[in-house]
Amino acid sequence: xxxxxxxxxxxxxxxxxxxxxxxxxxxxxxxxxxxxxxxxxxxxxxxxxxxxxxxxxxxxxxxxxxxxxxxxxxxxxxxxxxxxxxxxxxxxxxxxxxxxxxxxxxxxxxxxxxxxxxxxxxxxxxxxxxxxxxxxxxxxxxxxxxxxxxxxxxxxxxxxxxxxxxxxxxxxxxxxxxxxxxxxxxxxxxxxxxxxxxxxxxxxxxxxxxxxxxxxxxxxxxxxxxxxxxxxxxxxxxxxxxxxxxxxxxxxxxxxxxxxxxxxxxxxxx
Length: 270
What we know:
Shape: globular
Helix content: under 10%
Distance between the termini: 18 Å
């Protein structure tokens, strides 16, 4: 818990630094990526337009305001560093967004990597790896009928809202949704997701979690384990019912009340 609190304090510091330095970046340009590496730098706003896959692998990207992933576009940031310094890159190619991130219809966001849970693509040290990313979103993360959203090891200053999406109840392309080892300073809401699989692991959510009407083709989907939720946890209308599954994870700590399907034995600490 001590490490979690330190991480939360660090996230707050990042937000304050972004707020006080934004004036110095008043002339930063907007940037649009249609494919390939997102050029490192400071931008007023960033738009991921496709049709090619845009990647965060060339250096740090700082966005003063908002980042938008347009319909059918893809942003992937799974190149990390050791101790915050990317190897062989001169800087770890992390993403800092001072405003909001919006992932639109049929778009894909894969952001963040870490040892064991989700190895970085440039980590050649084997398994478990040693590299990780340090992604930061100062505002809200919103996904509206997105195709896939996978977020690891990311600090999010606002709310996370996933509404619909997932590509349908099938595993044809193993599309999925996943939030692991994230710190979310607001609420987490996932409703109407339909995909192969969906999971929440080792996240710290400072307020409430709503997990409603989500359906996965994998009977081991809708896995929720080892989270710390300082508000309430409500689950209803999910198929399968939320469970710890075969993740070998344990129950989540919920400071407020757990309700409906989230009162299943073993899902939360009594």
